[in-house]
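Hey, sorry to bother you again with one of my protein questions. A protein chain has come my way and I'm curious about its shape. It would help a lot if you went through both lines with me. I owe you a coffee for this, so here goes:
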Amino acid sequence: MNLKKFTQGYNRDGIVGFINVLLGKLGFKFRFKTLFEKRIKALQQNLKRISKNIVQSGPYSSLKISNNMKWSEMDYSPKILGIYEKEVQEELIKWNCKNFVNLGAAEGYHALGQLISDTKQKSYVFEQNQDSKMILEENVKLNNLEKKIMIFGKAEEDFIEILKKEKINLLETCFLFDIEGAEYKLLNNKNLEELKYSKIIIELHEDKKKQDEFINILKKNFNISFFKTKDRDLSNFIFLEGYSDIDRWLLASENRPNLMNWVKLTPKK
């Protein structure tokens, strides 16, 4: 048994964190909420009332999000504020590509947001979690985007063949990979050769040695740059002016276990 996770849980959330790790090890899905999580939940309820579940700022402004909270309780608020993965949003909208492919689309925040931003004509998404796919389908209907999106299941190593069957021109396509480390498997030599003229963003994960090896492979065909989570400006949200500093920053939190990093790939040729 990995005792490190118990230590991390305890250091982060005290006895509640320790118990939650234990519940996970025993196979239970239930988790006790920390005081911070309870406060975030209360703040979310106020934000839902104020926003009516519509994204309030940024390139995804006016995107409607399902009231169904199954997909996430802890990152709803930054998504509604429009500041969730702000750096990813900003990089993607610079690419005025015809197609957007999102592997690990969850409830469709980026896949639908890119369509709302009018920088992409069509989104193709892969998502293996059935609850997330259900919420994604709800969000598609809420935004009347049924004709602009195609939804697939789990992305496997043949994902490019699936896209080709839809007659997608990879030269006119940009990609976002958020698949918790599975990119090491999916982006094999064959697929990287197919994608060498496409534009790609990959959310990086923690295994430093594996990550470095992966980056060295990517450098063969792509120009590479890195970016990470930066600042958030909450001063433009008038409805938050009466909130305490702590509450405003809790609303901005994406509930990450560590600072997020992404790699951006652009074709060398």
